[in-house]
Structures are given as structure tokens and as C-alpha cells.
Write a structure and sequence with these properties.
This protein is of the alpha+beta class and 362 residues long. It contains 8 helices and 14 strands. The longest helix is centred in the C-terminal third of the chain and has 15 residues.
Length: 362
């Protein structure tokens, strides 16, 4: 027989194999406990939606006034939503469940201090799940009350807060991507070997720029020098001494400003185009990585940047989040830490008129 139990969180379908004449409220509670062993009842089983007419626990359900025993019979109760996680209960060889059933409705409505309850968590895939916990009082765990995991509650840090104070403290734990104010590459910028770029474009043209691809740029960082502005004075003997005198300026030698990047070759490591991947491709194991580095070193070259082929995108959309992360990882690797580096990022795509666009970024 199927009995429907309407709760404040939904309707439960309870299948009971006992004869209808022997079904009691305890039979229903025991059946519910097989799948929801930790449920806490805020109002007992009743015949009305307001739960103002509790079912008499001393008599079978068929003897209750106004009850017609049939499939789909509806009864009502109220439960604590945080204790209703459904659980698959295993059976032993004797057919008995491993969980202890509730003895009475009154006992079921009062949670035991040793019983477990559930709490909501956010899983790695973003779904919300209910898990069992033995801590019936969340205030015992300070980390659960903190405004961020692992930190103290706001009241323990400070008694009163203004909105500006809270936002200022919260911003300390928010990671932001800021615009790079100045370039580490000199005024001469980036020089790409036309043959290497043409070979990289051929693959993209073959698939009409619908498949993404990347490669490493090998070349040199060339230091450029800039003369400091000097004011030359032809006749120093006429310099006055005292008020308003112009003191002779010291000659300064040439200083290193920054660097320009010259790309001689592009190496495309093993990879597979994958539209489902965040980057648009999947990097494969490269058995020739060490050989490539050795050959480049013998030629006086080093890894100076990377190039990525992109499909047509809307105006203003330069890089995806995955491409920005990959560029940051390669820059950290080149600089061997958080240091200034002229490591460059080059994007290769096609414009609205079918013209190939090659742009350098840092």
C-alpha cells in the first residue's frame, strides 16, 4: 500500500507491505526512517494540513475517524528541512536495517543530543548537497560562523561594523586582475619572423580559423639603450656663483631602459583541438621538449613568448579567461617567479573582411 505524506518540503511516497488493518503511525515512521534516518518532526502525523488533528497512536490507521484506507492516502506532518537528507540504508542477512528506528512519535519529534543532523555544502561541481554531521550546535565550530572559511566571525573581530569597513576588509581576500600600466618591452616592440608566422597561419586557414592552436616563440631579448638628456654648456667660465647660479650638470652614462623581442622560430608542441576544452585545445605529452630546448640553446635562442590562434570573436573580446591564465603561468615560468619579464603573448585571428590579424600583448 502506498501512503503519501505531505511535508513542508514536499510529498513523500511511503510504500508499506503490511496489511492495511495493521498499519499504525509507528509503521509509517519506521518506513520513513529506512530512507531518512535522521529526520526530525516539528509536528506529528496528522489528518489535516495544519497538523492540528494528530493521529491517535494507540489505534491502527484504519480505525481513525474519517480515514479511508486506500492507495494514495494523504496524511500531513512538518519536519526540519535540514535533517531530511535521503540515505540508502543497507540490509543485513536477516533483512534488518542497520539504522535504529524511532520508537514513538514523541521521541522522533525531539532530536537526541547524540544523533546526527545534516548541513548544506557546495560541492566542487557547484551543486548543493546535504551531508551528515554530529555537531548539533553550529556555534561550537567557529569556522562555520566565520564570514570566510578559516576566519573568525565578524563579531569576534569587531563589535560593530560599517559597510565601508566590511567592504575594505573583504577586498583583502578578493583577487583582481589589474591592467599593466607600463610595458617591459621597448619602443621597438616585437619582431616576428614572417616565415614562422606564415607556417603557423597555414594550419588555422586550413580549418578557417575554427580550431584553436598554440605555439612557443623562440628568439632573443635585445637590450636597447637610451641617451639621457644632457644640457651642454659651452662656456662654463661664465657660470655665476651665488644666488640664481646654474650648477654644472654631471655627465650620465647610457642606461638600460628595457628590451625589445625578436622571434626567430615558432615551435608547436603536440596538441589536439577540442572545442569542449577551456583553452580550445588539449596539450599532449611532449617527448621532444628537452631536445627542442637544447637545439634552441645551441642557436642562442630561448623561449620569449607564446602565440595562440583564435576563432573570430566579437569586438573587444581579446582573450578568454583560460588564455589569460595560461599566459600568466608561462610568464611566471619565464621570470622564475613574480618578476618583471618581457615575455610576450601573440594572438592570431581573422578579421571581418577575412584579413589575418596578428597582435602582440603583454
Amino acid at each position: 500500500m502506498i501512503i503519501r505524506v505531505r511535508t513542508n518540503i514536499g510529498i513523500w511516497r511511503v510504500t508499506i507491505t503490511s496489511p492495511p488493518s495493521s498499519i499504525t503511525t509507528q509503521t509509517i515512521l519506521d518506513t520513513i526512517a529506512q530512507t531518512r534516518p535522521h529526520v526530525v518532526y516539528e509536528a506529528p502525523l496528522s489528518l489535516d494540513p495544519k497538523c492540528s488533528e494528530p493521529i491517535d497512536t494507540s489505534r491502527p490507521l484504519c480505525e481513525q475517524q474519517g480515514v479511508q484506507m486506500r492507495d494514495g492516502l494523504m496524511i500531513y506532518c512538518k519536519v526540519d528541512s535540514s535533517t531530511c537528507a535521503e540515505n540508502t540504508v543497507g540490509n543485513n542477512n536477516n533483512g534488518d536495517t542497520n539504522d535504529t528506528n524511532m520508537s514513538t512519535t514523541a521521541a522522533a519529534s525531539e532530536p537526541s543530543s547524540s544523533s546526527t543532523i545534516t548541513k548544506r555544502i557546495i560541492a566542487k561541481d557547484g551543486t548543493i548537497k546535504l551531508i551528515h554531521t554530529t555537531d548539533t550546535d553550529p556555534s561550537n565550530n567557529k569556522s562555520e560562523l566565520g564570514f570566510r572559511k578559516g576566519l573568525m566571525p565578524l563579531r569576534d573581530i569587531k563589535k560593530s561594523w560599517t559597510l565601508n569597513e566590511f567592504n575594505a576588509m573583504d577586498d583583502k581576500y578578493n583577487f583582481k586582475i589589474k591592467r599593466q600600466e607600463s610595458s617591459f618591452v621597448g619602443v621597438e616592440g616585437l619582431h616576428l619572423e614572417s616565415g614562422a608566422v606564415e607556417s603557423f597561419q597555414n594550419y588555422l586557414r586550413r580549418f578557417q580559423f575554427r580550431q584553436q592552436r598554440f605555439g612557443y616563440l623562440y628568439g632573443r631579448f635585445v637590450e636597447e639603450e637610451e641617451d639621457t638628456q644632457e644640457e651642454e654648456e659651452e662656456d662654463r667660465s661664465h657660470l655665476r656663483q651665488g644666488w640664481g647660479a646654474r650648477m654644472p650638470q654631471k655627465n650620465e652614462s647610457k642606461v638600460k631602459k628595457n628590451k625589445k623581442v625578436i622571434v626567430e622560430a615558432i615551435y608547436e608542441p603536440p596538441q589536439e583541438a577540442d572545442a569542449d576544452a577551456a583553452e580550445g585545445f588539449v596539450m599532449l605529452e611532449d617527448d621532444q621538449e628537452e631536445n627542442v630546448e637544447q637545439v634552441a640553446s645551441l642557436l642562442g635562442l630561448r623561449k620569449v613568448g607564446w602565440i595562440v590562434g583564435q576563432p573570430p570573436r566579437e569586438t573587444g573580446f581579446q582573450f578568454s579567461a583560460a588564455e589569460v591564465i595560461m599566459a600568466a603561468e608561462l610568464q611566471l615560468e619565464c621570470a622564475q617567479g613574480v618578476e618583471e619579464t618581457p615575455f610576450v603573448t601573440v594572438r592570431c585571428t581573422v578579421g571581418d573582411e577575412g584579413n589575418v590579424i596578428v597582435e602582440a600583448f603583454q
